[in-house]
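thought: fold this chain, then report.
action: predict
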Amino acid sequence: MLGDEGKDDDGCMFCRFIRCDSYPAILKGRMHLPSIEGYGKSGVFEVCKQLVTTVMIASIWEAACSVNGATLVAKDASQAAVQAAVNHASDGDIVRVPAGSATWSQKIKITGKGINLVGAGIGQTTITSAITTLFHNAPIFVDCSGKATRISGFSFVGGAGDQEGFVKILSSSGFRVDYCDFSNLTKRGVVAYSTATSWGVIDHCTFTKVSGTPQGVSVFGDGDAAWNRSLGLGSEISAVYVEDCVFNWPSSRDTACDIYAGGRMVFRHNVVNGEGVGCHGLDSGAYRSPVSWEFYDNVFTEGLEPVAYIFQFRGGTGVVYNNTVTSSHVGTSANILLTCYRATGTLIGHATYSQYLPWGRITGSNPYDANTDCYGYPGLDQIGAAPPTTPHNLSSVPPKNQNPPITHTTQGHQAAYAWGNTYNGNPMKMAAQRYSGAGYPDGSCGNANVASMIQEGRDFVNDVHMPGYSPLTYPHPSVGEVPAPPTNLRITH
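observation:
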């Protein structure tokens, strides 16, 4: 307990140190914090030196100035110590993980409460994954519907078991993953869900891929439900935003990001080195297509190895604008590719995927498609599709275990738009992806190909700003907001 003389009851001396307007400028710029002159004695908090190390001082002040909650400091960086602190935390609290290194073979679970899990900073608190590949098994697993969670200030070293991501956010309303470094990725860095109760932002993170096929960031939705919530391009609140991040792919692997199962993603102001971006469709994995995607103001630089494409979208709708691509390789597409795997015959995928079960191919009579012409147009969830979908329930347990319609489906329509993109200084435009080779449909009635299903002027538009579209404020409101001064600061070991 603090005494009037700046001592506790045991006589421990306290230091009167930094106000929020005088701690290191890098943190002030990062958090956009105001001065709190007038709070406490001379606007200065008093914190016992015996409870914190010098290394932790700046970051404790950062958290103290950003959240009205208690601060719990884990004993060390071990999984057991961090989980114990998480278990004792309440909504709004900060769980501080001190500097140090640890290997986790079990996950940290943050369930039912919105807390802030904060390390001592990149290069200070380092966690290495040694978990095994299991459903929902990620070193950090979050499920707190209706509540906000923040994960910040860590170096994460990936392991072979991170198929579900190093960080997996199944549900959190207004989550934030920021100022983290994800290295040695052979699987996923972050898996996050965009649903009616889960959305947030991933910002100021670095992802480095060394091998493997999954992406750096994977966004999932809630299947049928996502395809029956209104489209909100530009004002999309239930999306996962990825901004001000760096993706380093020393050699060409899977894409930097991907979207599945009705997911909604905004990817902006990022730097991608050595790889492309895109989304899944209504094809492999039995997932529904993503609903929407917005990619703008990003910089792409092709690495030592050529990649097949910088952009490829397989379903849903969105905008792609003001991106800059630099490449010295021959063979990389200079277009923003739009495709529909269900109209590629046997050309794409192995024997199982080429049938795209349970959806099947586009035939002109497949009940999963609208079948308004002899080709089957529009295909379910194809480029240009938008909510709502009738019938509503095509997946009895989203996003799988499908429930086929009796005759056909009906969906809304919103053409995708592209403008202001450049490839080596030249205009970069959307185009239906071209294929050739045995097994590719000829485009006749009942044998639709990609060109049959995706057409410029109908399903996508080039060189025109999407009418009525304006992007969400940058930086994301969760990043740029000015929080209220704290009123309940206490440090708990």
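thought: worth noting. The radius of gyration is 24 Å.
final: tokens above.
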